[in-house]
Amino acid sequence: MKNFRLKVFQRASICRNFDEIVYQQLKHKEINYPTYLSVGEEFISATIAQVLADKYIEPDIFIQHRGHATYLSFEGDIVELIDELLGRPSGCANGMGGSASIQCKEKNIFGHDGLMGSQVPIGVGSCYVSNKPTVIFVGDSAAEEDYVLSSIGWAATKNIPVLFVIEDNNLSILTEKKVRRSWEMHNVAKGFGVNAFNISDDPHDIKKHLEIGKVFERPLLLNINTIRKYWHAGAGIDDENVFDRYEKEMNDLGDDANAIHEKNKIYLSALWQRQLEKQ
Ligand SMILES: Cc1ncc(C[n+]2csc(CCOP(=O)(O)OP(=O)(O)O)c2C)c(N)n1
Ligand SMILES: [Mg+2]
Q1: Mutate to test the pocket of ligand 1, among 141, 147, 169 (most ligand atoms within 8 A of CB)
Q2: Ramachandran sector of residue 164 (left: φ over 0; alpha: ψ -120 to 50; beta: rest)
Q3: pTM of the model
């Protein structure tokens, strides 16, 4: 199990170190348009990517605006993401998508159009036609859209190989879930007859529920609770003291994780530096 956790940590560490550099670039105004950092939420996509890689499954992936970690966990090209954030034609969305609409055709990662939740009916329709394993990431707020709920119902009816991942950071910009709704996504999905669980972003918990939920044998929904460390958009922090899964994993895993963290920090700094010097 330690080996699995380290492999997940390696993916999460790429995401964390990448977005920590983006944070600095935002502060120094090298990037000066809305940017959505994944910091704090990395273990959702890192774990799912690792579990599927171990099974040799290459899914179609539909992401939302907060997609840096998803893109990087599923091994989207790092330099193309840097260039995208710098608004260059060599970026993964030709420099026209920006942070919110990143994509990687080689890794079957489809970018977002900015309409909250639109990726769910699009992803379900795509899965219905392709019958390929498909993972759809959606925020706890975007999941409230009517077209998201009806798409989950359709997936249940057609029994397609789709995994819905609710990235539940409890927030819609700044509005908490309890203000917005009296119900939970996993209960709604269960109502449709979909296997559904409400879990933490602990890698072991996610891995276990992908197995129990029989991922891709039938539709599965995981509502994964997580913590957004920084502001909704841009570089800022409201509370220094929130729980940080990354710190916990690094402490638990010890020297091996520390070494991974330091190596990735140097590696990503060098990549960013090289791209910035090209300006
Ligand atoms: C249909 C629609 N409604 C509202 C918005 C404005 N909006 C942009 S991001 C956002 C919050 C999204 O929250 P969530 O889905 O939980 O994702 P998170 O930002 O927490 O990762 C909202 C309301 C939008 N882009 N599209
Ligand atoms: Mg949210």
Answers
A1: 141
A2: beta
A3: 0.98
